[in-house]
Structures are given as C-alpha cells and as structure tokens.
Amino acid sequence: MSFRTSWHTLLEELEDLPTEATLLTPMSHKRFRVTDVQEHRIIIDVEETGETRPLQREQFESLYRRVTDESGGFELDRLPPDAAPYPAVLSLHPGFEIDEEAGSIVEQDGPTTTQLASGDDSPDETERTEPDLDVYADALLLVDALERHTVTALEEMETDALVNLYTLLSDVQRNANAVRQDVADVLLARLHHDQPVSGSFGSVQRTTRRNRSLKDDAKVLETLEEAGIDRERVLGVDRDKVEAILDVTELSESDMYDIEKSEYVRKAGVDEERKETRLQGLKDQLAAADGDEAEELRKEIEELESRIDELTEFSSGTTFHTRTEGES
C-alpha cells in the first residue's frame, strides 16, 4: 500500500474521531487531542501544556517508511522526544499498532489497537480507594504528626514527640523503599535503552550499572603470571581469615583493627497497637466530618502521595555525636 493511500485512510479515521477523543503518546502517556485535520497536516492540542502543534504530513511519511521498511517494527526510542504524537496518531490507521512492551510501532495485517485513551485513563474519573499498604498508613500518620508539631524547630520539641516522629519517618522510609523497588521491577520491563519516560511529577530512564566480582584466586594468579606480574603485588590480608584467627587465639580485636566508634539513633521498637488506634481515629474523623472540615481532611489524604518522596529523603541512623577514637 502506498503512503498516499495510507495517509488518506488515516485522515478518514481522524475525521470520524469524536470531538472529545483523547490520545496518549506511547511510553510517556502524555494526553493530547486532534483539533483539526487538513490535507498536509494535523493540528493537536497537548493537554498538559495547552500547546497547539501542527503534525506535518512529510513527517508522517518518514515514520511510515521507517515502519514499513523494517520487518520487526520501528523502535520508538529512535524518535526525537518531541515526535511522540506521530506514532500515537498513526496507530489510528487500521494497519499500524504500537507495542509498548517491545517499545516499537509495527505494521499489522489483522485487528490492531490504538493509543486512544479510555475512560479509565482519566485521573478525574478514577475511583480513589484506600490501598492495603503499610506505607500508606504510616505516611498518613506521619503527615498528621508533621502538621501537629513545629518540625522546623526540632530542638524545641519534647523528647516523646521526637521519638514518635523518628519512628514514623523510619517506617515510611523502609516501606516506601519496598514499594519503590516493586514499581522499579515493573518499570524495567517497559523502559527501553536510555530514552527518558515522563510522568506528571518527573521522569525515569533505564540505566545500566556495572558490578564486578573477582574471579577464582587460582584463575587470577594464573592470569597475572602469564602477564609477567609478580603475584606478591596482589596478595594481601584476608579479612575473613583474620576473624577466624581472632576466634581461636588470645589476640584482641584492637591488635588487628583500628577501631572508631560513632553513636547514632536506632529504632528499638514500634507500638503497632497505638499506631493503629491513631490511624483509625483519623479515618473516623474523616468519615464523620462534613463541610469545610471534611474537605480539609480529604485534601490531606490526597496530598499524601505527592509528599511521600520528600518524606522518605530522611535517613535513619543519623550520627549526632562527635566520633571518638577506640581504645587499644
């Protein structure tokens, strides 16, 4: 099929779109609408920025050639960042489909899906439910504690209030990190190469980290000898063997180690029953409240998600005393 034929098929599909139809860019899922269809260009409005953009026919032809010339489809991360609406619009053509798992747009003979947003994709239409997550409950308690105390003047707070604050910060950090890792595991399968993917609050990208582990001792020494390097240059003290020697001799730890002590705060326990009681009180307060009070409490919960990132920047186990040298 020629591009000219495909182009007019696409224009016909666009003409049939409902006025309120919203499309999503692949991967980043930015929302936009088609506002005008012309012979040589398509006009869109980007929802997030309010920007009006023309999508040119010649750019669609370039994308069409790339997709049809490659049997496995065209990789989306090869497109410039501002070109994301083009494959989204092209997916309205019955012969093309976006495969987000593979990160590509492909030509298809059978039925295809489009980048049209469904009602479930609209944040305004999504029903809010209370998640069964520890981080949600702990973060709600933390927000409550932060609002009841002047945390910008920690030195003026009572000790029991500081203990409560530290405990909640520690719990939020731990549980948020667990959820963050779960989210990262899912995202990893959806991100491709080094192309950033944006959301409303930020962007992420797939990154490669190199981890090294030394090969077997015999293999390393053999390789060094073959390279003419004296093995003595890499031989040193084995920490595990030193520990074993300390266990079976009268040598003291200070004979083998330079010891430096530092004092820090560590969470020693959590009163889960008290936390649950306070949390239930907040929920009951929300359920019973009406008018301005109810709206204020609802806003508190709605703002919770956007504040978790800031709250979990706190690092537990912070050193607060001057280090002292260990005695020999």
Give a quick summary of the entry:
This is DUF2800 domain-containing protein. Residues 107-130, 308-328 are annotated as: Disordered. With 328 residues, this protein is an alpha+beta fold.
List the helices and strands and how they pair.
Elements (H helix, E strand, L loop, with lengths): L2 H13 L7 E2 L6 E7 L3 E6 L5 E5 H13 L4 E2 L9 H6 L5 E4 L4 E4 L26 H15 L10 H30 L8 E2 L4 E2 L12 H10 L12 H10 L4 H4 L3 E2 L10 H17 L2 H12 L1 H8 L12 E2 L3
Antiparallel strand pairs: 1-2, 2-3, 3-4, 5-7, 6-7, 8-9, 10-11
Helix pairs in contact: 4-5, 4-9, 4-11, 9-10
Describe this structure in words.
The structure is a single chain. The protein has a 4-stranded antiparallel beta sheet with strand order 1-2-3-4. The protein has a 3-stranded antiparallel beta sheet with strand order 5-7-6. The protein has a two-stranded antiparallel ribbon with strand order 8-9. The C terminus is likely disordered. The longest helix has 30 residues. Strand 8 and strand 9 form a beta hairpin. It folds into 2 domains: 121 residues; 193 residues, no CATH class. Helix content is 42%, strand content 12%. It is an alpha+beta fold and 328 residues long. It contains 11 helices and 11 strands.
